[in-house]
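Structure (tokenized):
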């Protein structure tokens, strides 16, 4: 029998200015800066990871900041919004916080019986803060400005916008073991029965809407949790048997990855829970050093000179 997929591992997006991105997610959102490294394919570009204290799967948001990248466009064939879980009673804190930072937001509303607040990050990436039906017991990362009683707990959901949801829904159900749990209008919520958190995938069917363009302020891909290499390779075999073109397993230092394009056009990744972000820094020092893959260490001085200073 398959090992069950419990939910999301991480979400990767694209931003513009690295300093703006760093300031927004560490200061306004109150996330921990878990890892500062570089793009494996472009070592003069950062790769940032934000999350909880240790960068637990289901809390990790990563960015490739490209200074001069054009702005993307939300549309079909892509992931279009990231939902974070926040505690009950914290909406007013976040409203005041967004006001103080001059961030435009939509009036709080309700979806599937849960209150949520929507706003955009500095590059136009759509973020939602949702008070879940069931209390989210994950331990949050606290900062001087965002205490535990208000802090995000990690991902609540991610939304994919598609011109036809059927093939993607079939994959989530028949291969990944997700179940359709709620439906309203053109939004369909799927969940893994094996997971308690970061396990909602919303599919929005938007027939006739323009195809999205992945660039600045948009989501590049979403990753699902794999317990270990054996589980990942098992699911890779299943995808290949369905005719989906999955990559070989790739070593991303903090996890191992397999990528494939799901039938609706969104880039999916399978990512192992191990070895995690403490493989090259202690928990206390996470995010405090520029960590380079071994092949780029000889170029460290040149790379450090070209990267934007964050503080």
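Design, position by position:
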């Amino acid at each position: 029998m398959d090992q069950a997929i419990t939910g999301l591992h991480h979400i990767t997006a694209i931003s513009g200015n690295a300093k703006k991105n760093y300031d927004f997610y560490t200061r306004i959102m109150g996330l921990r800066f878990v890892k500062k490294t570089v793009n494996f394919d472009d070592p003069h570009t950062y790769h940032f990871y934000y999350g909880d204290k240790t960068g637990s799967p289901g809390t990790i948001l990563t960015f490739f900041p490209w200074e001069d990248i054009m702005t993307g466009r939300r549309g079909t064939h892509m992931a279009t919004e990231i939902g974070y879980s926040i505690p009950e009673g914290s909406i007013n804190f976040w409203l005041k916080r967004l006001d103080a930072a001059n961030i435009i937001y939509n009036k709080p509303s309700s979806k599937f019986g849960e209150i949520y607040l929507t706003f955009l990050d500095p590059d136009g990436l759509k973020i939602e803060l949702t008070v879940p039906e069931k209390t989210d017991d994950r331990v949050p990362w606290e900062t001087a400005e965002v205490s535990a009683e208000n802090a995000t707990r990690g991902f609540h959901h991610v939304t994919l916008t598609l011109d036809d949801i059927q093939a993607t829904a079939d994959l989530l159900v028949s291969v990944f073991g997700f179940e359709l749990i709620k439906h309203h209008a053109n939004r369909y919520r799927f969940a893994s029965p094996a997971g308690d958190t970061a396990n909602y995938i919303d599919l929005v069917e938007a027939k006739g809407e323009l195809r999205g363009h992945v660039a600045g302020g948009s989501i590049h891909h979403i990753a699902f949790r794999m317990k270990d290499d054996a589980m990942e390779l098992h699911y890779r075999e299943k995808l290949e048997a369905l005719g989906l073109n999955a990559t070989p397993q790739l070593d991303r230092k903090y996890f191992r990855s397999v990528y494939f394009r799901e039938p609706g056009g969104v880039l999916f990744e399978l990512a192992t829970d191990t070895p995690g972000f403490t493989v090259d820094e202690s928990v206390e020092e996470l995010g405090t050093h520029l960590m380079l893959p071994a092949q780029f260490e000889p170029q460290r001085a040149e790379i450090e000179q070209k990267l934007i200073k964050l503080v």
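Reviewer-requested clarification: The mean pLDDT is 97. The helical segments are 18-28, 91-100, 166-174, 229-241, 300-306.
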